[in-house]
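Methods — Computational structure assignment.
A single polypeptide chain was analysed. Its primary sequence is given first, followed by the predicted tertiary structure written as structure tokens.
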Amino acid sequence: MNLMNAHLAYTSGRAYVFKDYLWNPDHYPWPENQRLQNPPHTPLSALIAGTVVGQPFGQGDDSPRSISEKWFDKVCPTNERRVFFTGDVKPAIAWSQGNEIFEHWAKLLREAPESCIEVKASGDDNFPQVFDLWLWGSDRVLSLWDSFSKSPTSRLLMTSDIVRTAVKHNEHLFTSYMWRSRWARRLNVNAYAHMLAMHVRRGDFKKACTHLATWNSTFYSWNLLPQLPDPLIIDPSIPWNTTEYFDAHAKRCIPNVDVITAKASESRRDYARATSQATELRVVYLLTNEKGNWLHQLKESLANDGWEHIITSQDLELDNEGREVGMAVDMDIARRAAVFVGNGVS
């Protein structure tokens, strides 16, 4: 949502105001007695880089650069701000296409004469974002893909220095097995070119999956793009809100060991057909919050299926800074991998 809000500000000729990343305390990597703030938060610029966190736009583009919330509070005191309340704006466009919602807000921002604008929640708006869950969880958001993907907000989005350093520090984990592989020595390859990254979310996600199935939820956001393979299609003959329906939905939301192993094998075959033998997938990286015996079973299953090297989030060597941004480290490794299999509802 930060990215789309930044894109809206850019299109409207205004500077985006970015905030720290605010954690759900249950997911913060440090115990409560070691936290510096409550609730805990991390500077957004520690997680990402680019125009969203104040870096310049392209050459010749003099659009106003993003500023921090602290600076906004300094240059835009409360009494100088114009406030738009979501409860006043959103009802008229609540179920419109994404591009129509975007243009409605952009028009408001362009035409407002005030220098300082703030958007606040109001009324019975349970999801008081400009672009809310009801939009991101439906195919109405897809009308925004073309403009967003071509925008400097997207094109100039980069990895932060902290994340890049942590990834570099852990690259030896993905290449340490190569010394014993004749093909690797002969071809002098890098691990990312032969890596399949898979997002395997566990733990509290089982409860979330049950909740999503109850709402008959589909894939989320850009995961709904029609050009992507393997869309979420549940047999229409299965009645909604039945045990059979929940099982079918869980297969895509929180798959078991056999389903994940089969998907990895399928991805390897598909990639081999599309490329040369020299770029065969051999390494699996699992982005996961799982730590117990179930993860051991998954790794064993993948190894038995012929994967030469299996690394997980739990194997990463992170210092204090890297631990704080561990989820972004995970995502950047996945971004570099030859193939990424995500969880479409996450």
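Note: The CA atoms of residues 26 and 32 lie 10 Å apart.
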